[in-house]
Protein backbone atom coordinates (compact mmCIF):
# COMPACT_ATOMS: atom_id res chain seq x y z
CA UNK A 1 0.00 0.00 0.00
CA UNK A 2 2.79 2.47 0.91
CA UNK A 3 4.52 1.81 -2.39
CA UNK A 4 1.31 2.52 -4.37
CA UNK A 5 0.77 5.75 -2.46
CA UNK A 6 4.35 6.81 -3.15
CA UNK A 7 3.99 5.97 -6.85
CA UNK A 8 0.65 7.85 -7.04
CA UNK A 9 2.18 10.91 -5.32
CA UNK A 10 5.17 10.90 -7.68
CA UNK A 11 2.86 10.61 -10.70
CA UNK A 12 0.67 13.43 -9.41
CA UNK A 13 3.67 15.71 -8.87
CA UNK A 14 5.10 14.89 -12.29
CA UNK A 15 1.87 15.86 -14.07
CA UNK A 16 1.05 18.95 -12.01
CA UNK A 17 1.33 22.29 -13.76
CA UNK A 18 4.48 24.19 -12.82
CA UNK A 19 4.02 27.10 -10.47
CA UNK A 20 4.20 30.56 -11.96
CA UNK A 21 7.69 31.97 -11.60
CA UNK A 22 6.96 35.42 -10.25
CA UNK A 23 8.74 37.68 -7.82
CA UNK A 24 9.05 36.29 -4.33
CA UNK A 25 10.80 39.12 -2.50
CA UNK A 26 8.64 42.02 -3.62
CA UNK A 27 6.80 43.47 -0.62
CA UNK A 28 4.17 46.09 0.08
CA UNK A 29 4.81 48.86 2.59
CA UNK A 30 3.72 46.62 5.46
CA UNK A 31 6.40 44.10 4.48
CA UNK A 32 3.86 41.59 3.14
CA UNK A 33 5.06 39.64 0.07
CA UNK A 34 3.13 40.44 -3.10
CA UNK A 35 3.38 39.45 -6.74
CA UNK A 36 2.41 42.39 -8.96
CA UNK A 37 2.81 40.18 -12.04
CA UNK A 38 -0.41 38.39 -11.11
CA UNK A 39 -3.35 40.32 -12.48
CA UNK A 40 -5.95 41.34 -9.94
CA UNK A 41 -9.56 40.35 -10.61
CA UNK A 42 -11.15 42.46 -13.32
CA UNK A 43 -7.81 43.72 -14.64
CA UNK A 44 -6.40 43.19 -18.12
CA UNK A 45 -2.90 44.53 -17.39
CA UNK A 46 -0.78 46.25 -14.76
CA UNK A 47 1.37 49.33 -15.35
CA UNK A 48 4.44 49.03 -13.14
CA UNK A 49 5.79 52.55 -12.66
CA UNK A 50 9.40 52.35 -11.50
CA UNK A 51 10.40 55.34 -9.40
CA UNK A 52 12.71 56.47 -6.62
CA UNK A 53 12.31 59.12 -4.00
CA UNK A 54 15.26 61.22 -5.16
CA UNK A 55 15.03 61.17 -8.95
CA UNK A 56 13.91 64.65 -10.05
CA UNK A 57 12.50 63.38 -13.36
CA UNK A 58 10.44 60.71 -11.58
CA UNK A 59 9.12 63.32 -9.19
CA UNK A 60 8.16 65.68 -12.04
CA UNK A 61 6.07 62.90 -13.59
CA UNK A 62 3.93 62.38 -10.46
CA UNK A 63 0.96 64.43 -11.79
CA UNK A 64 1.04 62.56 -15.12
CA UNK A 65 1.19 59.16 -13.37
CA UNK A 66 -1.76 60.10 -11.13
CA UNK A 67 -3.75 61.28 -14.16
CA UNK A 68 -3.06 58.14 -16.21
CA UNK A 69 -3.89 55.90 -13.25
CA UNK A 70 -7.21 57.68 -12.70
CA UNK A 71 -8.10 57.37 -16.39
CA UNK A 72 -7.04 53.77 -17.02
CA UNK A 73 -7.95 52.13 -13.69
CA UNK A 74 -11.59 52.53 -14.81
CA UNK A 75 -10.73 50.65 -18.00
CA UNK A 76 -9.09 47.62 -16.39
CA UNK A 77 -5.45 48.70 -16.13
CA UNK A 78 -4.03 48.54 -12.62
CA UNK A 79 -1.18 50.85 -11.65
CA UNK A 80 1.54 50.02 -9.12
CA UNK A 81 4.46 52.19 -8.02
CA UNK A 82 7.67 50.16 -7.78
CA UNK A 83 10.56 51.38 -5.61
CA UNK A 84 13.61 49.26 -6.57
CA UNK A 85 16.26 50.91 -4.38
CA UNK A 86 16.99 49.57 -0.89
CA UNK A 87 17.71 52.99 0.59
CA UNK A 88 14.07 53.86 -0.12
CA UNK A 89 12.87 52.27 3.12
CA UNK A 90 9.17 51.75 3.82
CA UNK A 91 9.11 54.90 5.96
CA UNK A 92 10.86 56.97 3.29
CA UNK A 93 8.51 55.61 0.60
CA UNK A 94 5.43 56.38 2.71
CA UNK A 95 6.59 59.99 3.02
CA UNK A 96 7.28 60.19 -0.72
CA UNK A 97 3.84 58.76 -1.59
CA UNK A 98 2.20 61.29 0.72
CA UNK A 99 4.27 64.23 -0.61
CA UNK A 100 3.33 63.46 -4.23
CA UNK A 101 -0.30 62.51 -3.44
CA UNK A 102 -0.14 59.01 -4.91
CA UNK A 103 -3.15 56.82 -4.22
CA UNK A 104 -2.10 53.72 -6.15
CA UNK A 105 -0.61 50.51 -4.71
CA UNK A 106 3.08 50.62 -3.82
CA UNK A 107 5.69 47.86 -3.67
CA UNK A 108 9.37 47.71 -2.80
CA UNK A 109 11.56 45.64 -5.14
CA UNK A 110 14.87 45.86 -3.29
CA UNK A 111 16.06 42.52 -4.73
CA UNK A 112 15.32 43.98 -8.21
CA UNK A 113 13.25 40.97 -9.27
CA UNK A 114 10.78 43.17 -11.15
CA UNK A 115 13.66 45.19 -12.59
CA UNK A 116 15.19 41.99 -13.99
CA UNK A 117 11.86 40.60 -15.22
CA UNK A 118 10.90 43.74 -17.10
CA UNK A 119 14.32 45.01 -18.17
CA UNK A 120 13.80 48.57 -16.95
CA UNK A 121 16.97 50.65 -16.67
CA UNK A 122 15.93 54.08 -15.37
CA UNK A 123 13.39 55.85 -13.23
CA UNK A 124 10.85 56.80 -14.24
CA UNK A 125 10.21 53.91 -16.58
CA UNK A 126 7.01 51.95 -17.01
CA UNK A 127 6.53 48.29 -17.80
CA UNK A 128 3.00 47.22 -18.65
CA UNK A 129 2.51 43.53 -17.95
CA UNK A 130 -0.35 41.31 -19.04
CA UNK A 131 -1.37 37.75 -18.29
CA UNK A 132 1.46 35.57 -17.07
CA UNK A 133 3.71 38.58 -16.53
CA UNK A 134 4.24 39.15 -20.27
CA UNK A 135 5.71 42.60 -20.89
CA UNK A 136 3.38 44.37 -23.33
CA UNK A 137 5.16 47.73 -23.23
CA UNK A 138 8.34 49.07 -21.61
CA UNK A 139 9.69 52.55 -21.72
CA UNK A 140 8.96 56.22 -21.29
CA UNK A 141 5.75 57.88 -20.18
CA UNK A 142 6.01 60.47 -22.95
CA UNK A 143 8.66 62.29 -24.95
CA UNK A 144 8.93 65.40 -22.75
CA UNK A 145 12.58 64.59 -21.98
CA UNK A 146 14.96 64.51 -24.93
CA UNK A 147 17.92 63.56 -22.75
CA UNK A 148 18.91 63.96 -19.12
CA UNK A 149 18.78 67.70 -18.37
CA UNK A 150 17.08 68.63 -21.65
CA UNK A 151 13.32 68.73 -21.99
CA UNK A 152 10.52 70.41 -23.91
CA UNK A 153 7.68 72.40 -22.32
CA UNK A 154 5.04 69.84 -23.39
CA UNK A 155 5.30 66.32 -24.75
CA UNK A 156 4.56 65.77 -28.42
CA UNK A 157 4.01 62.03 -28.05
CA UNK A 158 2.25 60.28 -25.16
CA UNK A 159 3.71 56.83 -25.70
CA UNK A 160 2.46 55.13 -22.54
CA UNK A 161 -1.05 56.47 -23.02
CA UNK A 162 -1.13 55.14 -26.62
CA UNK A 163 0.08 51.73 -25.45
CA UNK A 164 -2.58 51.58 -22.72
CA UNK A 165 -5.30 52.61 -25.19
CA UNK A 166 -4.29 49.75 -27.50
CA UNK A 167 -4.35 47.25 -24.64
CA UNK A 168 -7.79 48.41 -23.50
CA UNK A 169 -9.07 48.06 -27.08
CA UNK A 170 -7.61 44.56 -27.35
CA UNK A 171 -5.18 45.63 -30.07
CA UNK A 172 -1.44 45.00 -30.28
CA UNK A 173 0.75 47.77 -28.93
CA UNK A 174 2.27 49.52 -31.96
CA UNK A 175 5.43 50.69 -30.17
CA UNK A 176 6.33 48.06 -27.58
CA UNK A 177 9.56 49.61 -26.34
CA UNK A 178 10.90 53.14 -26.06
CA UNK A 179 13.96 54.69 -24.46
CA UNK A 180 13.09 56.23 -21.11
CA UNK A 181 15.09 59.22 -19.89
CA UNK A 182 15.79 59.44 -16.18
CA UNK A 183 17.99 58.32 -13.32
CA UNK A 184 19.95 55.17 -14.19
CA UNK A 185 19.18 52.28 -11.88
CA UNK A 186 22.71 50.89 -12.22
CA UNK A 187 23.97 54.08 -10.56
CA UNK A 188 21.27 53.97 -7.87
CA UNK A 189 21.70 50.27 -7.00
CA UNK A 190 25.37 50.58 -6.07
Task: Please give a handful of descriptors for the protein shown.
190 residues, alpha/beta, Glutaredoxin, two-stranded antiparallel ribbon, 18% strand
Question: What does this molecule look like?
Answer:
The structure is a single chain. The chain is α/β, with parallel strands linked by helices and 190 residues long. It has 7 helices and 9 strands, in the order H-E-H-H-E-H-E-H-E-E-E-E-E-H-E-H. The protein has helices at residues 2-15, 56-60, 62-73, 90-99, 113-118, 159-168, 185-188, and strands at 45-50, 77-83, 106-108, 122-123, 125-129, 135-139, 145-147, 150-151, 183-184. The relative contact order is 0.18. The model is unreliable at 1-21 (pLDDT under 50).
Alpha-carbon distance between the two ends: 57 Å
pLDDT averaged over residues: 86
Helix content: 25-40%
Radius of gyration, taken over Cα atoms and rounded to an integer in Å: 19 Å
Low-confidence stretches: 1-21
CATH homologous group name: Glutaredoxin
Order of helices and strands: HEHHEHEHEEEEEHEH
The major pleated sheet works out as: 5 strands, mixed
List how many beta strands DSSP finds: 9
Q: How many structural domains are formed by the residues?
A: 1
Largest sheet: spatial strand order:
3-2-1-5-6
Per DSSP, what share of the residues sits in E-state strands of 2 or more residues? 15-25%
State the secondary-structure class. Answer: alpha/beta
CATH architecture: 3-Layer(aba) Sandwich
Overall geometry = globular
DSSP helical segment count: 7
Q: Output the CATH topology.
A: Glutaredoxin
CATH top level assignment: Alpha Beta
